[in-house]
């Protein structure tokens, strides 16, 4: 019995060591991988490393968008990115139509396809919620119905 416990502990130890020893990306490498998807003047706010992924937080001082970028520690590939701006998601009035929002999406993402636009509520404020696919990622965006500003975006990279 003691031999089985010792053997199981040894196997677990080897697995833990091999996972951390063979991870391809750590620290500054994960930050640099995340920066490949962001504007040049981005400022690093924080870094949190999990077992398989790292989350790197940034802010763009020009537009005050905050970014949370998830990077695979095994491959160094950016898996997911969440962006949130300083603008309010919605409004109590709506001046932009569904067609206007689709045109805004296509202006920002010319290769966007499978565009689905719905409305959402945040308290009394209504906003447009759009999902679409590009050649690089699947996206979801919240868009202000008066200004047409993207207040929040999330990309899941292929």
Task: Note down, in words, how this protein is organized.
The structure is a single chain. The protein has three helices and eight strands. With 158 residues, it is an alpha+beta fold. It has an eight-stranded antiparallel β-sheet, with helices on one face. It is elongated, with a radius of gyration of 21 Å. Mean pLDDT is 87; it is low at 1-23.
> Which parts are unreliable, with pLDDT below 50 for 5 consecutive residues or more?
1-23
Helix/strand class: alpha+beta
Q: Helix fraction? A: 10-25%
Number of domains: 2
> Helix tally?
3
Radius of gyration: 21 Å
Strand content: 35-45%
Q: For the terminal residues, how far apart are their CA atoms?
A: 47 Å
CATH architectural category of the largest domain: Roll
Q: Based on DSSP secondary structure assignment, what is the total number of beta strands?
A: 8
CATH class of the largest domain: Alpha Beta
Average pLDDT, all residues? 87
**H and E string:** HHEEEEHEEEE
Q: How do the strands of the widest beta sheet line up side by side?
A: 1-2-3-4-8-7-6-5
Determine the CATH topology of the largest domain.
Nuclear Transport Factor 2, Chain: A
Q: Judging from the principal axes of the Cα atoms, what is the shape? A: elongated
